[in-house]
């Protein structure tokens, strides 16, 4: 089949989407990399979590979070409605499985901002769909400098974040990929390369078998 100008249209092969997890200690650059990926890839969607905490000024239902009360959240947990869930500072957070599955079936990808524990839960729920990246700082000194440069936290909070960072970074080996974020542009390019390669993984390309058969090639 050719177009009106005699050129062949590009080959398109259906695929199942993937769940892309980015984890890092605070200040390592995860949020910057995530924003860049979302801006550059229309078929990448940020996962919307469900939480029991009250909305903050400017937050919208269904955009930033799905807000529910604690009994509703606990019912959803008992029904197995979450890919992962946790309680942080007396508030519960969880990733609903249903909306994510719909996006994956449509051949689009979902980006997650979760810690190593959430990554473990997602991996247990859907190991074939998960692609995990851990973001490391180039050094402990640079991580502390970045936390101070943000000017968002007191010295006490910065030191608390630094102490937590050591524990978080100890889980780096549990991830599929590790990016050392020394240069943010290079780190974004590396994350995009990972995304591009994982989208081409044979197991995710659900339309590949029929395409190959049309070429006259058996399994």
Structure description:
This protein is an alpha/beta fold. The protein has a domain at 19-47 and 108-202: P-loop containing nucleotide triphosphate hydrolases (Rossmann fold, 3-Layer(aba) Sandwich). Helix content is 40%, strand content 20%. The protein has eight helices and nine strands. It has helices spanning 30-40, 70-78, 97-105, 116-125, 140-150, 155-169, 184-199, 208-214, and strands at 19-23, 44-46, 49-51, 65-67, 82-88, 91-96, 109-113, 130-136, 177-180. It has a five-stranded parallel beta sheet, sandwiched between helices. A hairpin with a 2-residue loop joins strand 5 (82-88) and strand 6 (91-96). Helix 1 crosses helix 7 (184-199) and helix 5 runs antiparallel to helix 6. The radius of gyration is 20 Å and the shape is globular. It starts with 18 loop residues before the first strand and ends in a 5-residue tail after the last helix.
Q: Give the CATH superfamily of the domain at 19-47 and 108-202.
A: P-loop containing nucleotide triphosphate hydrolases
Q: Biggest sheet, open or closed, and with what strands and sense? A: 5 strands, parallel
Mean pLDDT, to the nearest integer, reads 92
- Rg measurement, Å: 20 Å
- Give the low-confidence spans: none
Work out the strand percent: 15-25%
Order of helices and strands: EHEEEHEEHEHEHHEHH
Principal-axes shape call:
globular
